[in-house]
From TrEMBL:
Cited InterPro entries: EamA_dom (IPR000620), EmrE-like (IPR037185)
Transmembrane segments: 35-54, 66-89, 95-115, 124-145, 151-169, 176-198, 210-228, 240-258, 264-282
Protein name, as recorded: EamA domain-containing membrane protein RarD
Alphabetic keyword roster: Membrane, Transmembrane, Transmembrane helix
Domain of life assignment: Bacteria
Annotated Pfam families: EamA
EamA domain span: 6-138
GO cellular component, as recorded: membrane
Keyword Transmembrane: yes
Length: 297
């Protein structure tokens, strides 16, 4: 198998795995802080086991948190996980994944502001179109009474973009940072669940922990590893296309499992977001192909 096909297989697996994240969280039928704690603890444990195996049997010596930049990016990843799970519990799944799909545009905007990377006209046009789509979805949240969840999803998207920008500025390997950063939401989730237990108002509550543990220990590490490895064999725009698998498939899985039908505004806004991202990615892929063809010419 050549490198390009290997990259396509890896990113397809990663995108498909990521699309099961929200459905598995919801299948746990738990309350927010307990679910956050269980999912984060299992992801952190899986990351440590993988890191130890790589150090024991691999030729590379990966660093868990590389310096101050790693700590800053880890803080962003950790808080974004809290915001993301908060969004899952406070708005429709389609709203969450469509709004989080704005992350690449947030990253382009932050790169412009902090790294002096002026975006191309096509990036600016895509950003405007996606802003219109997000505006439609959030307006639907305002009308439907779940504005808080939409705001949390936008916060998660912004924090993810900030973490990506920090990683690009530092130019160091941060492959393990998103996984070990789950120690932050794990501690916060355990604190809130413990506080409710001692207060006699609840405590740890996840009806079907298997699904949440499967998500944290297997699905999330698999998705992040495949999508992080994909850029070794594919261009950035190609990898970005496979992130759209979660945006498109997660609402379908939730519709099939929970019969949750997105609102008309969410569907229209989501369609604008997805079409804008597809158009942008295809344009960038053609640009990469032209650049590759120039030396040959």
């Amino acid at each position: 198998m050549d490198n390009h096909k290997k990259g396509l297989v890896l990113t397809t697996i990663g995108g498909l795995a990521l699309s099961f994240d929200v459905p598995l969280v919801r299948l746990g039928h738990g309350e927010l802080w307990s679910t956050l704690a269980l999912r984060s603890v299992t992801t952190f444990a899986a990351a440590i086991v993988l890191w130890l195996l790589l150090r024991r049997f691999g030729s590379a010596r990966p660093v868990l948190v590389p310096g101050r930049a790693g700590l800053a990016a880890g803080l962003c990843y950790g808080i974004s996980t809290i915001a993301f799970l908060g969004a899952v519990f406070n708005t429709a799944t389609a709203n969450v994944v469509f709004i989080v799909a704005f992350t690449p545009m947030f990253a382009a905007l932050l790169g412009w502001l902090f790294l002096k990377e002026r975006p191309s006209p096509s990036t600016l046009l895509t950003m405007l179109a996606m802003l219109a789509g997000v505006g439609l979805i959030v307006s639907g949240g305002l009308a439907g009474g779940h504005l808080l969840g939409d705001i949390l999803a936008a916060t998660a998207s912004l924090l993810l973009a900030l973490a990506i920008t920090i990683g690009r500025a530092a130019r160091i390997d941060m492959g393990f940072v998103p996984l070990v950063a789950t120690i932050i939401p794990a501690l916060i989730g355990l604190s809130f669940a413990g506080a409710s237990f001692w207060a006699g108002t609840g405590g740890f509550s996840v009806a079907d922990p298997f699904w949440v543990m499967l998500d944290g220990a297997v699905i999330m590490p698999l998705a992040f590893w495949c999508l992080a490895t994909g850029p070794k064999y594919l261009s950035g725009p190609e990898v970005g296309m496979f992130y759209l698998l979660e945006t498109i498939l997660a609402p379908i899985w939730v519709w099939l499992i929970f019969s949750e039908i997105p609102s008309s505004r969410t569907l229209l806004g989501g369609a604008i977001l997805v079409l804008a991202l597809i158009g942008y990615s295809l344009r960038q892929m053609r640009r990469v192909e032209r650049l590759r063809a120039q030396p040959a010419a």
